[in-house]
Fold this sequence. Notes:
By secondary structure, this protein is α/β, with parallel strands linked by helices. The protein has helices at 25-34, 49-66, 76-82, 96-103, 116-125, 149-159, 172-180, 190-193, 198-218, and strands at residues 11-14, 39-42, 69-73, 86-89, 108-113, 129-132, 164-166, 186-188.
Amino acid sequence: MPAILPGQTDIYALTDARLSLGRPVAEVARALLDAGVRLLQYREKRLPAGAMLEECRELRRMTREAGACFIVNDHVDIAMLVGADGVHVGQDDLPVPEVRRLVGPDMIIGLSTHSPEQALGAVAAGADYIGVGPLFATRTKEDVVAPVGFSYLDWVVANIRLPFVAIGGIKAWNAAEVAAHGADCCALVSALVGAEDIGAAVAEARAAVRAGKAARGRS
């Protein structure tokens, strides 16, 4: 099954057990996949490595059955052990060329970027896609950088040909504006995993992205 990149699907969901209303990660992932999410990142920061490995094995099985792409955040070793489709790293993690040496030619590598210089560096380093953000203030990461706003997103749309996902503080109520600025794929965390009805939340976010893309086409 070919891996799915941002731009080939509209919603990029990330896990976060702290925001999931006490529900297990696997239960939340099942609801996301049942709602049609086809790009899922495992991002858990506070578990022992062994526990993360077991959760990732379960999510790898579920995503494979659903025909979805499975990305592991930061932990290259766990991504390799479970046969994930990809790994996502930040600016302070292992450099993309070194990650590529470890994972081989076929695994997707995503890189978070917060500036034009970092986006150009991602292209030169061989990243398969970039994260663009945080667009808005977000509390889902403890080490988050300041919001970059729409100016950086607009620059990426105009200058970078790599697939990208917009991320950071995106909710259903502002996703349309993000899409109108050129983002074909939006990453959401709390708006999805923290919803009582995850299926309805995914549908609402998807409709917002669709509306924003339509507005872009009319401008």
